Amino acid sequence: MWVLFQKTLKKLYCPLSIIERYKKNDFTFITYNIQKFPVPFKSFEPIKKLLTQYSIVLLQECYDELFSSLETYFPNHYICRGTLKGINAMNSGLVILSIYPILETTFTSFKTSNLLTFDVFAEKGYLSALIDVSGQKIMVVNTHLQSCDYEAYDPIALLQLEEIIDFSRYIKYPYIIGGDFNIDIKECKKRHPTLDLNYPSDPTIYINFNTGHSKSTKSHGYTGLIFDYFIKGGLIYDMVVKTVCDEYSDHNPVVSKLCIENVKL
Predict the structure, then answer these.
(1) What span, in angstroms and rounded, lies between the C-alpha atoms of 242 and 2?
(2) Which of 126, 193, 189, 182 shows the shortest CA–CA distance to 156?
(3) Is the distance from CB of 203 to CB of 225 less than 8 angstroms?
(4) Residue closest to 25 by CA, chosen among 176, 175, 173, 134
(5) pLDDT tens track for 158-188
């Protein structure tokens, strides 16, 4: 029943009424792994005000839409999802919400995965959306790479990152890739020094590698890591990026602002 429901979720939802658009040069993002699984039930209400402050919203681990519909909470947003296509028990958990029109959307499953982890039950990959921001087309990509509770990263996550980088080489528009990479920014910078990485200065998650437990606040025995950030291409100026303290999830959301007048055509 649960699997059948996930297959009925709309790939793209378009609002019946259009909310007032932001100013042309006000292009804001939030990426947030909200840890929203079917059990225990979590309402969007505690984070609704936070999410609606931004023009583009990237969510990861957004699995529980049977009990808490996105269209109900965000009826005036365009919404696209990484829906369930294969035989997995759960979809990708990826969602992009936008106050600007989503023209096209595509979900791509990763070619590689760790079959010995719980991630194998979810159809992980990356969700892309071509968005019309006041006449400027920008590709937005949302992803959630392979997790690893007891080590700094899973080698599979590095292979999945390579898949996304390969995909980005064929994007015809300026683009922004965001999400939960499950690779600390230091490791990502070391392995891919040429990427245009935009990230906060504060950790986005704290992990105890002995117990495998993670949380959003600093604590003894927990290592602070920056798993949530952005990669951009075809854009001149850096994004202003920072974390926002929030206890809805084991991650802290990352927010950013970009002046789209600086898009390099």
Answers:
(1) 36
(2) 182
(3) yes
(4) 134
(5) 999 999 999 999 999 999 999 999 999 999 9
Secondary structure of 39-74 in the HEC alphabet? CCCCCCHHHHHHHCCCCEEEEEEECCCCCCCHHHHC
Give 2-59 pLDDT, tens digit per residue.
455 555 566 788 887 665 555 555 689 999 999 998 777 788 999 999 999 999 999 9
Class of domain 2-199+226-262: alpha beta
The pTM for the full model equals 0.91
Asked if 52 contacts 76 with a C-beta cutoff of 8 angstroms, the reply is no
CA distance 165 to 213: 30
Residue whose token pair is 């798993």: 227
Beta strand segments in 111-190, E: 125-133, 136-144, 175-180
CB atoms within 10 A of CB 42: 18
According to DSSP, residue 90 is labeled B
Q: How do the domains of the chain map onto residue ranges?
A: 2-199+226-262
- Rounded CA-CA distance 125/135 in Å is 28
